[in-house]
Amino acid sequence: MSEIIVQKVNETAAFLKAQYEGQPQVAIILGSGLGNFVQKIKVEKEVPYTDIPNFPVSTVKGHSGKLIFGELSGKKVVAMSGRFHYYEGYTPQEVVFPIRVLKMLGIQTLLLSNAAGGVNEAFSVGDIMIINDHISFSTPNPLIGKNVEEWGTRFPDMSEPYKKHLITKAKQIGEAASIKLHEGVYFVVTGPTFETRAEYRLIKIVGADAVGMSTVQECIVANHMGMEVFAVSVITDLGIRDEENVITHEEVLEAANAAEPKLAHLFTELIKAL
User: Of 54, 71, 104, 233, which residue is most buried, by most CB within 10 angstroms?
Assistant: First the structure.
């Protein structure tokens, strides 16, 4: 099985190298409602997921489904406008397939974004939280199965899944631009249901500040393959709250869109500083 996955990753990487001759250094994965960030990129090539061999196809509203190659802040970048989630019915290996391909394209740094529910009571809708750690007991580890030694060690260290030097630089960028940035722990769940009130309370008790349905499996595989990871959550709803309101995906997208200019500045300047 692992031999088949390696073959598919190599096939896909070869196809994309034939589509785009540049050498991207940084990859960006955009979460729900954050796809407009690609307008900041000087686009040199767009490849729809449906045209890429072996690639999954995004099925979620707010995820457009294309790979964008170009230039941003003087660096060659590739952006995934639309990601894949375990709740869509994909296996963990399918969810992280693009991460494997990105590494084979030569990516050194992976920037991740997501829309998340706020658990920390100090958070407000529209805030940005830098992820400094995560809790992933609720979703299957994508490294389960036979290890591919040329991709990484059997037991990768996860003591620093999100690189401290990138976090430090991002905080400096935020301070210089008067962008309020939180820092905290991201708790991943399978979805697609939003959490119950009791689940939100439990997630808070175990030490998380935000909760969402993505990012962690991508982060694990990026670390396994030696990429440096930086990730942020846009707080699009509040799980710990007094009023009896409900959460809808439309409201999540609206909040993400409102916060996008701040996220765009953060990512743009961070890429410039790499």
Answer: 233
Amino acid at 189: V
CA distances from 128 to 72, 102, 116, 210 (A): 21, 26, 10, 10
Would you state the structure tokens that stand for residue 219, as one six-digit string?
């982060």
Q: Is the pTM of this model over 0.85?
A: yes
One-letter amino acid for residue 107 of the chain:
I
* C-alpha span between 229 and 107 (Å, rounded): 11
CA distance 207 to 111: 24
For the chain, the domain total comes to: 1
Q: Write out the residue range of the structural domain in which residue 188 sits.
A: 2-273
pLDDT of residue 257: 76
Alpha-carbon distance of 213 to 191, in angstroms, equals 6
Burial class (CB in 10 A: 0-12, 13-18, 19+), 6: middle
Q: Which residues pair with 267 in a beta bridge?
A: none
CATH of residue 110? 3.40.50.1580
In tens, the pLDDT along 110-119 reads 999 998 999 9
